[in-house]
Specification:
Structural class: alpha+beta
CATH topology of the largest domain: D-amino Acid Aminotransferase, Chain A, domain 1
Keywords: ATP-binding, Biotin, Fatty acid biosynthesis, Fatty acid metabolism, Ligase, Lipid biosynthesis, Lipid metabolism, Magnesium, Manganese, Metal-binding, Nucleotide-binding
Helix content: 25-40%
GO molecular function: ATP binding; biotin carboxylase activity; metal ion binding
Function: This protein is a component of the acetyl coenzyme A carboxylase complex; first, biotin carboxylase catalyzes the carboxylation of the carrier protein and then the transcarboxylase transfers the carboxyl group to form malonyl-CoA.
Largest sheet: 8 strands, antiparallel
CATH class of the largest domain: Alpha Beta
Pathway: Lipid metabolism; malonyl-CoA biosynthesis; malonyl-CoA from acetyl-CoA: step 1/1
GO biological process, one term: malonyl-CoA biosynthetic process
Number of helices: 15
Length: 455
Amino acid sequence: MFRKILIANRGEIAVRIIRAARELGIATVAVYSTADKEALHTLLADEAICIGPGKATESYLNINAILSAAVLTEAEAIHPGFGFLSENSKFATMCDEVGIKFIGPSGAVMDTMGDKINAREQMIKAGVPVIPGSDGEVHTAEEALAVAEKIGYPVMLKASAGGGGKGIRKVEKAEDLVAAFETASSEAKANFGNGAMYLERVIYPARHIEVQILADQEGHVVHLGERDCSLQRNNQKVLEESPSIAIGKTLRHEIGAAAVRAAESVGYENAGTIEFLLDEASGNFYFMEMNTRVQVEHPVTEFVSGVDIVKEQIRIAAGQPLPFKQEDIVLRGHAIECRINAENPAFNFAPSPGKITNLYLPSGGVGLRVDSAVYPGYTIPPYYDSMIAKIIVHGENRFDALMKMQRALYELDIEGVQTNADFQLDLISDRRVIAGDYDTSFLMETFLPQYQEKE
């Protein structure tokens, strides 16, 4: 096992990793920007090193500064968390080159699965269903028009590299495609340095289903069930639950087996997530992409599976085999996660940085967890993602979990900044969400217009 690891991240995920490491008896090193000098992860870690100014490009995305901090503190491994450098193949490769274990897959595997076109080709070889679309990268609007004509509208334009909702455009008809292609390609080039796109036919209505997998260095792959992430705003997840109400026992087995085949086909190591679109009308599911890191929503899977995913990430990276087989994994109850963001829903969810003057996080009872890195008096910097907490609940069944989440959101009190807590409470209390009657279009096309009208 490692003696010391460095966490190349900030916020609640950095705190989550520090806590897991401490429970494993591992010393931790936090890195921080000047804007995060008083951040909780810097206070909890055994050591903390400043790696640059507040802008992420000069600190949390500064590979040389992070590797220098690891070498200086004699850290044996680096956990990247999610976001920032977590899916940067160059970073993973450079860690290996300087003799520091990257807690995640190899850079080569990241390149295969991080590039959506390469991943699509690999999935076809592995017998995993893929969405009808372009055979490779599309570099011009003219090429895109030809592909769209072949597969049929509506189509989804997606950046070949990257994620997080960047470089994605839905196109309903041919006359809108050229402008959408140019905008999405420019956005992709600005964010990922690669403007190449590809096209897929839109599967609508659909459920966004993702399967959590763990893979050790000996080639053993296990899935921990699925999460339903269909409630999204601008392609960003808002609320997640596990298991999905849309999936029965047979389909759960099929989609889980497909995720395992996907990971095995690329020699995957560590934690990862295979994302699918489920066409409820036909019952068919299609591979979307793979996230080669721990997910924001991993706690819902931890609740239903009983597996500590972050601890398993560290153990796998240290060379330990998975301590369980697929038949050992039993999903129990139902879990839901709500993301609490410092943002103002009344003003198009504009970020709301500032000082937290008062804070009460819900607590009490079995099956309630809050992952956060904020505290009373903490000032949220304007440089980073607006998520400040995750509320996760677990119940004996879905209704039990829904009621527990409503109770938790009622208790939550954050003063000094605007948050989306009331928005989340309205969403989790909506009769259609309670009934499980939603898909990827519901939040943007049905719930949000009604919410804004009420406001």
